[in-house]
Model the fold of this input.
Amino acid sequence: MSKIFVDACLGKETPYTPVWMMRQAGRYLPEYMAVRAKAGNFLNLCHNPKMAAEVTIQPLDIVGVDAAILFSDILVIPDEMGMDLEFIKGFGPKFNDPLISQEDLDRLIGGEEAASKLTYVYETIELLREQLDARGDNKALIGFTGAPWTLATYMIEGQGTKTYNICKKMMYSNPELLHNILAKVTEVVKLYMEKQIEAGIDVVQIFDSWAAAIEPSKYDEFSWKYMVEIADYLKSKHPHVPIIMFPKGVPAFLDKVYGNFDVFGVDWSTPMALAKEKLGERYVLQGNMEPCRLYSKEATTECVASLANTMKEGRHIFNLGHGILPDVPVENAKHFVAECQRLSRRD
Done:
């Protein structure tokens, strides 16, 4: 039996518009926090297939979304390439050995060797595939990766940043080194996502969370072309697996979007009507409710109704325009999902 989310990604007719939420397996769920406490810390949870599978499935049962997204973290890639990663409570991820030279890059492993070290991710997917198939409810499983640019920003800055001045200094003063970093990361990502597909995921999403840090005239050169390269590689190997591209904060880039993928994720700062006008003929659109609307059921319903109306003649997947926030009431998340399914029902 076909999965409604996969059908929607491929632009097929569905009984209603499916819905999921970025960061849907996370801190707003008490059940997630209980498992995380048992794991000891965030990385332990990522590295434990049984626990990672448990929190991946929680939103299906608790919130009612139409797809599960693999519980992992984008930074497992540079971690397994040989960088020294730690998650600091109250601060977030930190690399203690950021990349500043070609010599730093050369000491990292790449390609098949790095992708093969992510066995705990593939084991989590295999476990999820078995559990989801046994349920028989035809919920899809989404695998994901950070885009090379987003990964590179952490690898160069050493941590999250508001200014990106270290990696952007490299962009303008030593672009060759930045391209070398992006190329090496891209090779690992291609193989990592291929292995995710082989382990059993249904759909791939590529997150470029820090896309807005790049000026529009440089975006293709330093990010989008690498994302397209990954999509081309995966389509050459697995042409029937849908690919979602999600570059956050690039409304100025919409006219320049190209590539062999299926779904374009629209962030909350980009009007859905504009995305539909520019891209709706070529791609299914995903998104794009402002995540803070989840604090109000009334504001949620208002936005869902507007999106349903805007996209009633278009191909669409409901989602937030970025991740759900940790203090959103679970009841409000359930309300969002139920309203998406109710207001878009076609039968």
